[in-house]
Amino acid sequence: MTTNTFEPLDPLIHVPARLRILVTLAALNEGDTLSFTRLQNMLDLTPGNLITHLRKLEDARYLRSKKTWDGNGLATTVTLTTRGRAALEAYTEALRSLLSGLAS
Amino acid sequence: MNDMNMTGDTKQAASAGEEAGLDPREAAQILEQAKRQAQRQFDPHPPLAVVVGAAGVFLFGYGAVWWSMRAQHVYTGPALWSLAVLYGLIAVSAIAGSVASRAKSGVSGRAQRERQAQGAAFAAAGIGAWVIEGALRYRGVSFEIVYGVFGPTVPLIALMAVAAGISATRENWLQLGVCIAIIAVASVSTFFGPLGAWGLTGLGCCLVLLAYAAVLVVQQRRS
């Protein structure tokens, strides 16, 4: 029963850290990028932890990362893709209907 | 620690609890918290300290100039010390503001291009107003009008007009209201000569900004 309940939720997003990553990036305007360091500070994750989650999201093409030279070294920036934004919206909608189903 | 290529940290930490399943209610809570946190962090509103600091610049900076001229029956201009107070406060406030405004740090792309365009618009408005001030003096308009009335109001109005445009584009109605209120105060104060221009603009803008700060406090408490 539990498996059926969770079925509509995107399993890639349905993980606390990845959910927080996507929601944070979605708060930016479309096309804006966020530095890895700022994202790490905001989410309070270790670099390795954040990298692992970002890679999974990037593999699913939910976000794009880019390395640029910022004068001090290589800096990574991440941006939410249109696909990622749509996936988060679909997840939010599915979560909402799931919760309303549980409440009724 | 900028690079995503680092491999030192454990991957186990990332996958810990990942497959354990997440309760939908808990997921909804995380989603809401993360959304609120992100909105707070990327908040386009200036930090409260910056607004209160700007109110202080108007009250004490403009107030100092007004104070130094209050006994003048014939306009001779503000005392040098009062101008030093005014520009000193503006400089301190600008430095403190740029340090405190971290909302867009680490954000690049369209947001960065927008900031650069906005900077150019502010610079054009400010420089344009000051060039006109110089032109008026060059054309023989009195010191009283050029430095006493135009100086404290028109550059401010020009800068606030740009800020109002930006606020309107962002649909930030509260900030738009603040900009319009400052423009109104500065415009009306020009009817009262140099003393009125400095005194009323200083006091009026200080009150507008303190009211803005109060609304920000209420909004922060509600969220």
Structure description:
The complex is a heterodimer of chains A (about 100) and B (about 220). Chain A has helices at about 1-5, 15-25, 35-45, 45-60, 80-104, and strands at about 35, 65-70, 75-80. Chain A has about 100 residues and is an alpha+beta fold. Chain A has a single domain (about 1-100), classed as Winged helix-like DNA-binding domain superfamily/Winged helix DNA-binding domain (Arc Repressor Mutant, subunit A). Chain A has a three-stranded antiparallel sheet. The two termini of chain A are about 15 Å apart. The relative contact order of chain A is 0.19. Chain B has about 220 residues and is mainly α. Chain B has one domain. In chain B, about 75% of the residues lie in helices and about 0% in strands. Chain B starts with 11 loop residues before the first helix and ends with a helix. The chains are: A alpha+beta (about 100), B mainly alpha (about 220). At the A-B interface, helix 1, helix 2, strand 1, helix 3 and helix 4 of A face helix 1, helix 2 and strand 1 of B. Strand 1 (about 35) of chain A pairs antiparallel with strand 1 of chain B, so a sheet runs across the interface.
Brief digest:
Chain A has helices spanning 2-6, 16-26, 36-43, 47-59, 82-103; strands at residues 33-35, 63-69, 74-80. With 104 residues, chain A is an alpha+beta fold.
